[in-house]
Amino acid sequence: MSRIGLLADAMNSSLKYSTLAAWPLAICRALEAHGYDPASLLTDCDLDREALVQNPDGRVDIRLMTRFWDQVRQQTRDEAFGLKVADYALPLHFRALGLLMHTADSLEDALLKIGRYAAMVSNSVTIRVEQTPASLAFCIDPIAGVPISTMAIDSFFATLMRFASQLGARSPLVAQVELLRPRPTEPASWERYFEAPVIFSASQNALWFRRGQLKHGLLMGDERMAAYNESVVQAYVAGLDAATFGQQVKRLLLAQLEAGEPAIGSVASQLNLTERSLRRRLREEGLSYRELLQQSRMEMAEYYLRHTTLSVTDIALRSGFADASNFARAFTRWFSQSPTEFRKTQLPH
C-alpha cells in the first residue's frame, strides 16, 4: 500500500458511498409498470425489497445500486429507462427532504435546498448549484473511483424536473441539459423528456432551469415547518457524513479536479462555510488547503496509473498539472518513482 493508499479502496470502503432506499424502490415500481419483474434483479444484486420498504431512511451501497442499474439496462434493453423511473419517484419518497421542499418559501428555494442537502439522496457524487441571472443549474460531479451509472444521472435530472413541475413550475422549464455520457443511439428520448437541447459527451453533467419559470409554485411557505424539516435533514446528513473536514474537502477536490483546480472559496461554499472558517477548521486538523490539493492530485494520479491505460500526459492534465514534465517531477518527489516506473510495478508478474 502506498503512502496515501489506493484511491479505489478509500473511495469504496464500507457504506461510505450510498444512496437512499427510495431509489431502488422507485426503479422497482417503474419496472413493474412496464411489465418487468424486479425480483430476480434484486436477488442478483443482494437487495431485499421488503427490507428497503421497512426502512425507507436506510441506505444502499452505491456499488450494489450501480449493479442494479446495470441489470435494469440489460433486462429492459432501454438505455433511456432512467428517465422513466422519474415518473415513479415522488417528493415524499425522499422523506424529510421532500417535506422540506413542500414547506419552502419558493420553488427556487426548494431546489436550492435539494442542492444543499443532496447527500441525503446520494453522497456518491458531489452536487454544485450554479446560478446566473437567467438560469439555475444542478451540476453532478462524479468522484474518481466511485461507480455511478449514467442511468442514475439521467434519473436524478428527470426527477428534479418532475418535482419542479409537480410543485407548479411553468413550461418550458429546462433551458439545456449537459451529460458526460456518450451520445446514445436514440437521443430523441432525452430531448422529448426535457423539452430542451441535450448535449452528450459534454464537459459536465448539468441541468439548466429557466429561473423565470421557478417564480411560480404551489408550496406551503410554512416557516416553522420548514425550519423543523430542515433540522431533521441536517441531522440525517450529519450522521451520514461524519467525515473530518479534511476528508470532505478531499472528496470535493477529487470530484472536481478534472474540470480545473477549485478555488478554496468555492469549496468552502459547497460546505456551507466561509473561506476563513474552512481554513480555521483545516488548521485545527493540522491541514492546509494546498496540502489537500496536492494529496488529491497524487491520489487521482495513482488511481489512473494503477487502473487505466491513459497516457502519462492525459493523467497529468486530469490531475490538474499543466504538462507531463511538471507532473513527473511532482509524482517522483511524492512516490520516489517516476509515473512510468510506478506503473510498471503495478503490472502482473
UniProtKB/TrEMBL annotation:
Residues 247-345 form the HTH araC/xylS-type domain. It comes from the Bacteria. GO terms for biological process: positive regulation of metabolic process. SMART domains: HTH_ARAC (SM00342). Transmembrane segments: none annotated. Keywords: DNA-binding, Transcription, Transcription regulation. SUPFAM superfamilies: Homeodomain-like. GO terms for cellular component: cytosol. InterPro entries: AraC-type_N (IPR032687), Homeodomain-like_sf (IPR009057), HTH_AraC (IPR018060), HTH_AraC-typ_CS (IPR018062), Tscrpt_reg_AraC-type_HTH (IPR020449). PROSITE patterns: HTH_ARAC_FAMILY_1, HTH_ARAC_FAMILY_2. Pfam families: Arabinose_bd, HTH_18. GO terms for molecular function: DNA-binding transcription factor activity; transcription cis-regulatory region binding. This is AraC-type DNA-binding protein. It comes from Marinobacter mobilis.
